[in-house]
Amino acid sequence: xxxLPDSLRDAFKEPMGPVxxxxxxxxxxxxxxxxxxxxxDAPVVAVGDVVTYHLREAGRVPDVALVDGKTEREAVxxxxxxxxxxxxxxxxxxxxxxxxxxxxxxxxxxDALADxxxxxxxxxxxxxxxxxxxxxxxPEGASVVYGQPGEGMVRVAVxxxxxxxxxxxxxGLDGDVDGxxxxxxxxxxxxxxxxE
Length: 196
What we know:
Elements: E1 2-3, H1 9-13, E2 19-20, H2 23-36, E3 44-47, H3 49-57, E4 64-67, E5 70-71, E6 74-75, H4 78-85, E7 90-96, E8 100-101, H5 103-114, E9 119-125, H6 131-137, E10 143-148, E11 152-157, H7 160-171, E12 174-175, H8 177-183
Parallel strand pairs: 3-4, 3-10, 4-9, 7-9
Antiparallel strand pairs: 1-8, 1-12, 2-11, 5-6, 10-11
């Protein structure tokens, strides 16, 4: 549906929030975001196997987790894959090639965000771009957490400002951007500040 053009690759390497290796501090910041927005049920969305693993090890099962069995294009360590293979919640499998966002992934993300129970989206391919649509689709007060290669975890608090930034990047993708926004339940004509 949409793909990452070479011209935007550098923009996607910049973290969209603070980078940390401390999962407990990250989860405390996520709780503060929920409180600030009066959204006690706002989800924590984890994009990546290692991020999901660290949050679970810190005692927080992400409300939505997107995993592909890889980290930095290599298979994750056995302890990570074994830990992620267990645990409750629904599992959904989608195909999503590298540097792409498919309709299947976008629809699975929206569906998972609506589920009151934890959902793991198992991606056949790569989930690397999924933080963007997660920021656009999650409610204010939510936190989207993804890995920054070689550095740690990035937490993006879902706010009007972070949505604007995500929307600008999203609109720079190649392909049917309006169709992709539609799959997220957003219209192509929505201004970035009005994303709900």
